[in-house]
Design brief:
- It contains three helices and six strands, in the order αβββαβαββ.
- By secondary structure, it is of the alpha+beta class.
- The longest helix has 23 residues.
Length: about 150
């Protein structure tokens, strides 16, 4: 009788642990709004994991095209940040939800020009940020920014 009780307790514990694991499985959604880039590219515009939104790197393309805006760093930086805002908004987030950005610059000498545009997109706080120089951004872009957003 005692061995049956031990087996019963072990089965209940095993089932409980399996249920706890099932509750911890994240809700993952692969998202492509089509608001910035065509939806047939080999990556997701964003991936939502529970309340976190991971954005693919954005560059200064004219929405709906694969063409960079003319005008150099200032124009590309503005369009890049507008594209980030579009992706966030399409998925129920906004600029104040950004918690981390990674900036890739074709020329680190353009850091100040990028910063002048970037800081105008935030009113409450600035996300954590990393930046580095890069050789060969997509489509010959001057800047690419990838971000992570979080909601309560």
């Amino acid at each position: 009788m005692r061995s049956l009780s031990v087996i019963f307790v072990a089965v209940i514990a095993l089932l409980g642990s399996r249920l706890a694991f099932a509750e911890q499985t994240p809700d993952v959604k692969f998202l492509n709004s089509g608001k910035v880039l065509p939806t047939n590219l080999p990556f997701s515009e964003a991936v939502q994991v529970d309340k976190l939104l991971y954005l693919s790197g954005q560059i200064g393309v004219v929405p709906g095209t694969m063409a960079l805006v003319p005008g150099g760093m200032a124009a590309e930086a503005k369009q890049t940040m507008d594209n980030i805002r579009s992706v966030l908004n399409a998925n129920g987030y906004d600029m104040n939800d950004l918690v981390k950005c990674t900036v890739m610059l074709a020329d680190m000498a353009e850091w100040s020009a990028f910063n002048a545009i970037y800081k105008g997109y935030f009113s409450e706080h600035f996300p954590a940020r990393s930046a580095f120089g890069s050789n060969g951004l997509a489509l010959g872009a001057r800047v690419e920014v990838e971000c992570i957003a979080a909601r309560n």
